[in-house]
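A brief tutorial aside. Many learners find it easier to grasp structure tokens once they have seen a single protein encoded end to end. The record that follows does exactly this for Beta-glucosidase. Read the sequence first, then the structure, and try to relate runs of similar tokens to stretches of the chain.
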Amino acid sequence: MSAFPQHFLWGAATAAYQVEGGYDADGKGPSIWDVFAHQPGTTYQGTNGDVAVDHYHRFREDVALMAEQGLQSYRFSLSWPRLFPQGRGEVNEAGVKFYSDLIDCLLENNIEPMITLYHWDLPQALQDEGGWENRATADAFVEYARLCYARFGDRVKLWSTFNETVVFIGHGYITGSHPPSVRDPARAIQACHHVFVAHAGAVKAFRAGQIAGTIGFVNVLQTHTPLTDSAEDKQAAELADGIWTHWLYDPVLKGEYPADLLAKARALWNVPQFAAGDEQLLKENICDFIGLNYYKRETVAANNQQTHLQANHSGERNSGHEFGFKDLFKFVRNPTGVYTDWDWEIYPQGLTDGILQIKARYGDIPMYITENGLGAKDPIIDGEIVDDPRIDYLKIHIDAIETAMQQGADVRGYYPWSFIDLLSWLNGYQKQYGFVYVDHQNGLARKRKKSFFWYQQLIASRGEKR
């Protein structure tokens, strides 16, 4: 018997910049990604989201495919500059209508919308004022959230504020590979704090508005294994867990930072600086649920050397460098690991372990697996997209979720990344994740992959048929 109950949601996920296109359509303002991706050398082969897969104009076609597949829920993000072209102030009613029509279309097809308010596409107008380093951006985010609650809260029950802070802050302010292309840990930590303030303010507004739903936060779930049993590697793995997990989960699930890491950050850089009321705001606005994005574990070793910060964005195996920080830790290749073309280890046990670690640290918090999937170059054989590796990947990770649920974890839904092949930020369109293939040489025509029909059967059996 499957451990998945009747109310468990089988869904799929995307993000606005990666699918919508229409980057300047109907009054939309520019986002930081609209600007960044047009700068030479920033993305793989100069790809950008100007058109993406044109979901903005083809959402009804896409929702029809979701309904055919049997999706019970669809997780998507809203484009902040599509609603507020300047980040605040004047509302773009055409943008409101787009999302309202999308929500209605989903509900007409018995698909539960799950909205993410922020999936990295900050309005460029706010970045010009300092972005997340500017505390006023947190206030603007709350204004944006209130608009979304007011216009969509009568129909949407599942909300999350931010997606993967460790990525958009880490790459935006430490590695410099995402906008705003800064490399400064102190600035990163202060910007991250303003994200937590924005989140807490949005949760407070959600509850004040008495929205009939729940609100959460979406984080990367990345388990860490020491390379060896040495004390140095174990300590390095614990530190990686503290930075990648506790620093990002504690403020939204406990309402405070890990005391030891907070002390270290302040000793080194005198950040994060709190404004009056921050401590209380965080403490009083804990999430209703947590979204977990799991793709891989990392094997961790002690590190006394400066390491590169460049990841594999080409899809050529072993083309990435070791990622780490001098005198702290580095991520290394596991000698027994199985890896994707982008050097991400396939390790489903890490999903079970990670879910149970969250349960152990934060109690019986409801969880959704808000992303999980395989980025690959899918083979086309006699006109069919034969993505057997994706089916195998999803199967073993669904098994891993079931194992965690059998041990008491309250997991309420599964959203593979992604519903449709989309723009993969720095990796272009060659890194495919979707159940639906997009033919960029043939008018962005949609085509169902082998995995589309596999997931269709799995949903129909409520997880029984894998």
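Self-check: The chain has 15 helices and 16 strands. If you spotted this yourself, you are ready for the next section.
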